[in-house]
Design brief:
single chain; 5 strands; five-stranded parallel β-sheet; 5 helices; 28% helix; alpha/beta
């Protein structure tokens, strides 16, 4: 007898994997399809997030082969989106707090692909440093998502966590919890909350 998952009727999403990068794409699709089928067979109908290979980068969705391979993702419940990541630094890796001009436009190829194939996207990781260039690109990125809500179902900022140093350029938590001061990025993010 199969037991119902404890979150079956809760407002949660299922994120299958985070930034797969060296797997064979056919195997990655097969494993994610099996996971989706198991989730649906257990009676859960919430949103499932599947990832592409090559770190699931939105900017490289087409050039990495994800655009072709991920068309084979199947969801019997027809409630899934692709978890893609997009950073605003020079090589789109999130390893720098310096943003480059027009990096906020890096979602366009994924968006066009998703729209053409009736797919949806979730921006599961993004971030930029606390400086004027990044603020410009961050606004551009979030406005783009807002303007294309037929494809984009949501987003989450990558903020590291307590194991990251206090000077990590993506951290959103206040430096002091006894005297909290909101980081500048939060003011921008707040403008685009749905």
């Amino acid at each position: 007898r199969q037991h119902a998952p404890p979150y079956r009727n809760k407002p949660v999403n299922y994120n299958l994997t985070n930034e797969p990068h060296d797997q064979d794409k056919a195997l990655l699709v097969s494993v994610q399809n099996e996971a989706i089928a198991a989730i649906r067979n257990a009676g859960a109908n919430q949103l499932v997030l599947a990832s592409g290979g090559a770190w699931s980068g939105a900017h490289s969705w087409v050039s990495s082969g994800n655009a072709e391979a991920m068309l084979d993702i199947r969801d019997p419940g027809n409630n899934f989106a692709f978890d893609v990541h997009q950073y605003l630094d020079q090589n789109a890796s999130g390893t720098s707090g310096t943003c480059v001009a027009n990096s906020g436009n890096r979602l366009s190829a994924f968006t066009a692909w998703a729209r053409e194939h009736g797919k949806r996207g979730f921006l599961g990781e993004f971030g930029g440093g606390a400086n004027s260039a990044c603020n410009t690109e961050l606004r551009r990125l979030l406005q783009y998502i807002k303007d294309n809500r037929d494809v984009w179902v949501g987003w989450t900022w990558w903020g590291g966590g307590p194991w990251w140093d206090d000077d990590y350029f993506f951290i959103l938590r206040p430096a002091s919890l006894s005297n909290p001061v909101e980081p500048p990025d939060m003011a921008i993010l707040r403008q685009f909350l749905w």
